[in-house]
Structures are given as C-alpha cells and as structure tokens.
Automatic annotation (TrEMBL):
Source organism (scientific name): Triparma verrucosa
GO molecular function: U2 snRNA binding
UniProt key word Protein transport: no
Keyword Transcription: no
Biased composition (Acidic residues): 240-258
Family according to the record: Belongs to the U2 small nuclear ribonucleoprotein A family.
Protein name according to UniProt: HeH/LEM domain-containing protein
C-alpha cells in the first residue's frame, strides 16, 4: 500500500474542481491513512480521497483554506474529535459509502458550523432515529443533507427538537458513554422500557416516536417526555388535536345557525308595492322647484287615489245589482238553456217541447 509520503503527494495532479476550487487528486490510490499533508502548505481548496482504504478521518493538520473534502468509498468508522478546528472553513463534506454506524460517530460533524453540503448516504447512521433532525438542528448553515434540500418546516421541527429534553438527554448520554457500539435505538428505547411502573410495548413506542416527530413545538415534546418518565402513555390531547376538533365543531354549529337567517333574508319578498308610490310622489316633489307645486302634486296623487276608490265602489255596485237581478228571479230575461239549468239545479222536471213562457211560469211558481 502506498503511503502519503512527500514525493507521492507532490506527484499528484492539481486541477480545478467543477466549483472552480484548486483540488488535489488522490483517487483510487489505496491510501491507508492520512499523513504529511502539511507539505502542501495549506494552498489548496479541495482534497479528493475518493475510493481509498482510509479507516478513519484523523491526523489532519489545520487547513484553513480547505472548503471541500471528498472521502467517498472508504471504510471510515471514526472522525477526528476536533474536526471543526482542523477544518474551520469546510463547506462541503462528502462521506458517502463509509462505515459510520452510530450517532456518536458523527458527533464531530455537529461542530462544523460552516458546512453547507453534507452527504452521509451509504452509512448505517442514516437509518437511525432523529439522525436528520439532530444534524439540521445543529448546522444552521446547512442547505443540503444527503442530496436532499432542507425545507423551512424541517428546519423549524429540528430546532424545536433540539431544545427538547429528549435531545439533550440523548446527546449527553452519547457523549458520556464510552461504548462505541451503542446505537441510537438502544439509547432511545431505554427510558421507554424502564420508565415509571409501566413497560411500553413496541406499538406504544412507535406511537410515542410518531407523536414526537409530529410535534410543532419544543413544549409539546417536553410534555410527552414527562408522560413517558411517569410511565404513562401521552394522550392525543397533547398534540392539540382535540382543541382543533372542538373549534371545528363550534364553527359548524355557528354556520348552521347563520344559514337559516341567510335563507330567510334571501327568500323574503321585498315590499316593493309600498315603496313605489313613495318614490313616485318623491320624484314628483323633487321635479317641482316650488313648494306649491309639490303640494299640488300631492293633492293630485290623493285625488287619483280617491278616483280609484270611487271606480272600485262603482264596479262593486254593478256587481251587486247584477246579483240582485238574479236573486229577484227575472226569468223572462234569461235564455231557454239557462232556464233549464236553473230547473235542473232546483230539481224541477223539465217538460218536453216546452216553450220559454211555460218554463218561466214553472220557475215563478216554484
């Protein structure tokens, strides 16, 4: 295996990366460890160690100019504890297809606050619980994680989770524990199994974790943690779902109350007949310039009303006179057909071939 000796390092090509960074290429060189990088005098922006045999990212000198470090397709299991001080201006870190399995193994990355692009695809740590939330919560300048853009909602949830007691207890236990094989599930599931007097089932733990992920604030996460510590299952009311349901029910009741009033006002006929005479009279009044003309128009309108009333009375009198003529039984003025109809109504037998005078006499006698 070739080592990173001074002659080997100086023999490697130096080119420009797609981001126009001065980059040195150590690709596919079977390098077993990092050493002697100070010979480059910190004059490069990017280092490419893709497809080598590096078991760890250690023994790094202080490279203040380094902005990109590509370490894909190695066997890296651990990272240098003071990674952020050795690479203070690191913006792009690619650790795809390595052997980082636990949250503890990536803790040094959390202090690299200048990171903007980070990839840990192909590592076992990506399948751990809260992996993405922990990284996003710590790295405020990070824009892309595992080639997936970080959304604003994801940023808010991660910051809220970072303030919760679950995250603080988890990170403190990871930092204090000495075993390197302990995974996030083991640390996370321990309080759930032994909390209080109750043993939570697998379904309970899944439900609690889903509630934590759906929580919109750090206060909600703290409340869930308190229930778990007491050995109690957090109720759904902690998420505020019952309050939302009650608000929706109240809104529906208010809408149902408003609907009949709205329909009543829509179906109620407008008193147009009452308003029309006023509008005509007002129009006649406003059309005239003097007060006397206004009074005349009102008098005329009242006279027209009286004339209408008199006409109605005359028509009613004529109807009454017609009814009187019928009731007085002036049969002589009626036709033969009407006389026969009257006889049928009164139940009088109609003689055959009877003339009008005979029918009149029969009706008068009846």
């Amino acid at each position: 295996m070739p080592r990173l000796t001074a002659p080997f390092i100086l023999s490697r090509p130096i080119t420009y990366s797609p981001l126009l960074l001065r980059e040195i290429d150590f690709r596919s060189s079977s390098i077993p460890s990092l050493e002697n990088l100070l010979i480059l005098r910190d004059q490069l922006d990017s280092y490419d160690f893709t497809d080598n045999d590096l078991p760890s990212l250690t023994n790094l000198p202080r490279l203040t100019r380094c902005k990109e470090m590509n370490l894909s397709s190695n066997i890296i299991e651990t990272l240098q504890s003071d990674l952020s001080s050795r690479l203070p201006n690191l913006e792009i870190l690619t650790l795809t297809s390595n052997s980082l399995k636990t949250i503890r193994s990536i803790l040094p990355i959390l202090s690299c606050t200048s990171l903007r692009y980070l990839s840990l695809l192909g590592n076992g740590v990506t399948g751990k619980k809260y992996y993405r939330m922990i990284i996003i919560g710590h790295l405020k300048n990070l824009k892309v994680l595992d080639y997936k853009k970080i959304t604003s909602s994801e940023r808010e949830k991660s910051s809220a989770f970072l303030k919760s007691s679950i995250c603080t207890d988890l990170l403190s236990s990871l930092k204090s524990s000495s075993s390197t094989s302990e995974t996030l599930e083991e640390v996370d599931s321990a309080p759930l199994v032994t909390a209080g007097t109750r043993s939570f089932t697998v379904d309970d733990k899944k439900l609690i974790k889903s509630m934590i992920e759906q929580a919109k604030s750090a206060e909600v996460i703290d409340v869930i943690q308190e229930y778990v510590k007491r050995g109690e299952m957090p109720p759904r009311s902690v998420m505020g779902e019952e309050e939302k349901e009650e608000e929706e029910k109240e809104q529906l009741i208010e809408e149902e109350k408003e609907e009949p009033t709205a329909t009543a006002t829509a179906t109620a006929p407008a008193p147009a007949s009452k308003k029309r005479p006023r509008s005509t009279s007002n129009a006649s009044v406003t059309s005239d310039t003097s007060k006397g003309s206004g009074k005349r128009s009102r008098a005329n309108s009242s006279a027209s009303k009286d004339s209408k009333v008199s006409k109605k009375s005359k028509t009613s009198k004529t109807v009454e006179t017609e009814e009187k003529t019928v009731t007085e039984e002036n049969f002589a003025k009626l036709t033969v057909a009407k006389l026969k109809d009257l006889m049928k109504e009164k139940g009088i037998e109609i003689p055959k071939k009877a003339k009008k005078a005979e029918l009149v006499k029969i009706l008068e006698e009846s």
